[in-house]
Amino acid sequence: MFLAEIFNSWQGEGGSIEGSAFGRRQIFVRFAGCDLRCIWCDSAGYILASNVPRWRYEVKPFTGKFEYKPNPAKLEEVVDVILKLDTGDIHSISYTGGEPTLQTKNLYALMERMHDLGFKNFLETNGSRPERVEEVAHLVDYASVDIKDETAKASKNWRELVLREVESIRILKKAGAKTYAKLVVTKDTKEENVRWYAELLKNLAPLAIQPKEPIDISQHQLMKLYNIAAKIMGRENVGLSFQVHKYLNVL
Ligand SMILES: C[S@@+](CC[C@H](N)C(=O)[O-])C[C@H]1O[C@@H](n2cnc3c(N)ncnc32)[C@H](O)[C@@H]1O
Ligand SMILES: Nc1nc2[nH]cc(C(=O)O)c2c(=O)[nH]1
Ligand code: SF4
Ligand SMILES: [Mg+2]
What we know:
carbon-nitrogen lyase activity; 7-carboxy-7-deazaguanine synthase; rSAM; iron-sulfur; magnesium
């Protein structure tokens, strides 16, 4: 499989929304390669798998010391690295990227293996390919599925993408995964678009609204978007999420 990095940290996103693992200790497996191009992506260096000839892994959690191995990574060496980073307090393994679901078979094999070893699986996905999500959904315990706002400019037809993301949420929920939606908002996010996302997510999954980093949206506008979503989805089903790991300078 084509990887970017493996490290041990605490989950910095999701806030207090149901299904979030915010503040839980995880081992993060970051896959290389993505099918979208969000303009604000903080992992942009890993979007093209061909630009990631080797992957890095922490030698010891929170030391900032890494070692490198060439891509493609072998399943057994990945499992070995994860087990060496296991501090005995791991809530779940986070599969992120890039886009983990693109490497469907590799993701399947790794999640199955981690389940067999007694770990829970947390999938962080852009949800752009419901048919691939469906293949692995039964192995997912927790899922954070992005809804890409128009201002992300993630793909040509953003409305179609949103509908596919919602379909991925439906599939994950049906398979029994605790699933929430994450919407990254910017100063240019339109209120009418948030209304539409909220209508789609109503009675389906809770929504974490996460300001793009570095934050450009005003607190006033952020709370306006929150209010719009909460009035449609219900006040228990909307919350804020900030990328806390960036403020605390951890991976
Ligand atoms: C790098 S993505 C990888 C997983 C998957 N490709 C996705 O987009 O959901 C992990 C999470 O980081 C968020 N993210 C990336 N760059 C960000 C930024 N500049 N500000 C806020 N959130 C960001 C994404 O929206 C996503 O929820
Ligand atoms: N601490 C920490 N929390 C995270 N939550 C989502 C992340 C990601 O990049 O997918 C991430 C990450 O890279 N680090
Ligand atoms: S989908 Fe995720 S990894 Fe891909 S460009 Fe967008 S934020 Fe980055
Ligand atoms: Mg990140």
